[in-house]
Design goal:
Largest sheet: 6 strands, mixed
Oligomer: single chain
Radius of gyration: 21 Å
């Protein structure tokens, strides 16, 4: 992108004329990497409780502060992407009500607290009515106008959120079934679903599963050794002696899901990805000391740091994989 093109793009964003604010990948080995600044609409379902003198549910039950969770999450992704991705919350909406499930059911204060206290009795059909949220908050129009690029929802346990879900024309699997909508919107966006009972580690995992879905889609036309995404996620259990970085549930040496604290050393090519696209086949022994000795947040940050973030292209795929993780419209 030339200086004048970049200036024009900035002017369009400032005037609200750019409905596709995330930069498209630029071809050519010498092309630099443009930082990504996705704009976020934050929707917090945190009803007030009469039984707790009007306190919000999250505070009454001693759960995490959403604003701090958001700040830490944004900071972690900014750090791990070496400053390439900086999410910006442009609007914060607090909802003092209980969201509706897909079958029309809604908890109220009494029914929810009763289930929470006995740890059972939850409503069987747990999925949120996403259509009601999309239409009720005018999400299609907000995204189409360029006001926001994606939506983050926070709620309580059993609120019915998917960790991430994609909406729009030609939407595809994003750790949840796609919500194909072509009424009033010309491009795709993601709705993230977070739980303020839990800390930043699970938030990073949700974003990691989103990244996995988007990168799998980006590399779908490649097979065998040419599919570098499939190589990146190799771990010792499925590829003995050929581990690379693994994926959200499996570190290079994990023997089962979430086995991030395994002390057994295995050979891994993980360092290669820090110098991508120069893959030298360098191998060394790694174990859980590399990624926090079992700590979820530490492992996920280690994994994100290894995502390629280089200039140029490999085949038709940008060497900056954060482009795909941050923008569902980058993978065609």
């Amino acid at each position: 992108m030339s200086f004048w093109d970049e200036l024009l793009a900035k002017l369009k964003r400032a005037l609200g004329l750019d409905t596709h604010p995330l930069p498209a990948p630029q071809r050519g080995e010498g092309v630099g990497i443009l930082p990504l600044r996705p704009r976020v609409l934050l929707i917090i379902f945190d009803p007030m409780l009469q039984s707790s003198n009007g306190q919000q549910l999250s505070r009454a039950l001693g759960w995490y502060n959403v604003d701090q969770l958001v700040a830490d999450f944004i900071a972690d992704l900014h750090e791990c992407s070496a400053g390439l991705v900086q999410f910006d919350v442009v609007e914060r909406i607090h909802v003092d009500s209980w969201p509706t499930k897909a079958d029309g059911f809604r908890y109220d204060e009494g029914s929810y607290l009763a289930c929470w206290q006995r740890k059972s009795g939850w409503h069987g059909q747990d999925t949120l009515d996403y259509g009601a949220v999309i239409d009720g908050f005018g999400l299609l129009g907000r995204v189409e106008s360029g006001e926001v690029d994606e939506v983050w929802m926070f709620g309580f346990p059993y609120a019915g959120f998917y960790e991430s879900i994609m909406v729009g024309p030609d939407a595809f699997w994003c750790n949840a079934p796609p919500l194909v909508r072509d009424d009033g919107i010309s491009h795709r966006f993601v709705i993230m679903g977070f739980n303020y009972e839990r800390d930043v580690g699970p938030m990073l995992e949700s974003f990691g599963h989103r990244a996995e879905s988007l990168l799998r889609h980006a590399w779908r036309s490649y097979s065998g050794e040419a599919n570098l995404w499939e190589r990146f996620i190799l771990h010792d259990k499925v590829a003995p002696g050929r581990a690379n970085c693994g994926w959200m549930h499996f570190a290079p040496n994990s023997r089962s899901d979430y086995d991030w604290g395994n002390p057994a050393p295995v050979p891994s090519n993980c360092d290669d990805w820090l110098a991508f696209p120069s893959l030298t086949e360098s191998v060394r022994q790694v174990d859980c000391r590399e990624w926090g000795n079992g700590d979820m947040r530490a492992h996920h940050k280690w994994w994100f740091r290894h995502l390629p973030k280089a200039a140029g292209f490999t085949g038709s795929i940008a060497n900056n994989w954060w482009l795909y993780a941050a923008d569902p419209n980058a993978a065609h």
